[in-house]
Amino acid sequence: MKVQKKSESYLPPQNCIDVSTCHLADGVTLWVNDNLRLKAESEFLIRLRVEQGRSFEIRSAKIDGKSMNMGYIPLFFSQINNDTYITQGIVGACDTDDMVWQVVIDYSIDDVIKQVSLTLPMI
Prior knowledge:
about 45% strand, disordered N terminus, mainly beta, about 0% helix, four-stranded antiparallel β-sheet, 9 strands
C-alpha cells in the first residue's frame, strides 16, 4: 500500500465525537473516509491515530458483523508515522438490507488493555 504521509486525508474529521464515520475515546481516534458511504465488495481505508507520547500497541483488529454473525475479516495496520496507522478494509455483500458491519480493535495504551469499535456507514 503506497501512502503519502503529508496528505490531509490522514487527519481525522474535526468534530469526530458526533460523526458516524469516526470514533474518539481514551486518546484513540478511529475513522473511515469522512462523509463516505461504504459499498460492499469495495475496498476502503481505515485509519487510527493515537495521542502523541503514549505507549500504544494494536493487539488485534477485525471487521465483523454487528447485526448478525458473518464471521470476521482480519485487519493488518501499517504505521505511517509516530501516531497514525492505516489499513484497507472490505466487506462482503449480504442478501439482507439490514446487515451492519463494524471495525473492532483490541489495543493497549499506557499498558491498559482496551477496545474501540466503529460501525461502518454502508450504502
